[in-house]
Amino acid sequence: MDDDGIELIHRALSAGELTDEDLSTRRLAGLLGKTTGAIYHRWGSLDGLLFAVSQRGFVELGARVSSVWARTHDLGACAATFVDFGLDHPELYTLMFERRFDWSALRAAGAFQRATPGSELLARVLCLFEQGGSKSALSDTRLFMAGLHGIVSFAASGRMNTGELTQPDRAVALASARDLAARLLPPAAKTANPPTPKPSSKKRARA
């Protein structure tokens, strides 16, 4: 089953049983018990398969962030959840946020005909900034996501605690994520209802 194959690769990446070096057609075909030809027939390319796996990761990340927002209405707590996810699942996170997909080929193959879990997560964050009264919600969304990605990368490299060497990298990373959220989100938004993105005719994000 296609979903079973995606779930199997997702679990292996999440557990660190696969690394970026393992993400070849031959290696994944062996893991799934398929031929390489079957991979290309079903997903069109290795990128097609890995993009599907990355979106399974966004389903998990989106669910965690949404759950935290529903309980706290605190963007800082959501930011910390994002950072925890990235540090807890580095191999999966790398696929989701760092792999250089052939975006043109994925688009031609119809990967973006419907909203993806990655684009839906970005839409929720965008709605939050819009409801919070941001004068540049799209720019704030980009800064927020890029900032969180930078924090995850900096912490994963062991450099996040620069200037505070007595503090663990993760602790400094989580505090920095909360600080980033506090700097970008107007205080009024912290009491807003959880945002529900509306369908848009604009070009969808490709996360």
Keywords:
single chain; 207 residues; mainly alpha; Tetracycline Repressor, domain 2; 10 helices
Describe this structure in words.
- There is one protein chain.
- The chain is an all-alpha fold and about 210 residues long.
- It has a domain at about 55-190: Tetracycline Repressor, domain 2.
- Helix content is about 65%, strand content about 0%.
- The chain has 10 helices and no strands.
- The chain has helices at about 1-15, 25-30, 35-45, 45-70, 75-90, 90-95, 105-110, 115-130, 135-155, 170-185.
SS-based structural class?
Answer: mainly alpha
Tell me the total number of β-strands: 0
Mean pLDDT: 90
Q: Tell me the fraction of residues in β-strands, as a range.
A: under 5%
Q: In which range does the helix fraction lie?
A: 55-70%
Uncertain residue segments = 199-204
Q: How are helices and strands ordered from N to C?
A: HHHHHHHHHH
Main β sheet profile: none
Oligomeric state: single chain
> Ends: how far apart?
25 Å
Shape, per Cα inertia axes? globular
- The number of helical elements comes to 10
**From the alpha-carbon coordinates, what is the Rg to the nearest angstrom?**
18 Å
Give the CATH architecture of the domain at 57-191: Orthogonal Bundle
CATH top level of the domain at 57-191 is Mainly Alpha
Q: What name is given to the CATH topology of the domain at 57-191?
A: Tetracycline Repressor, domain 2
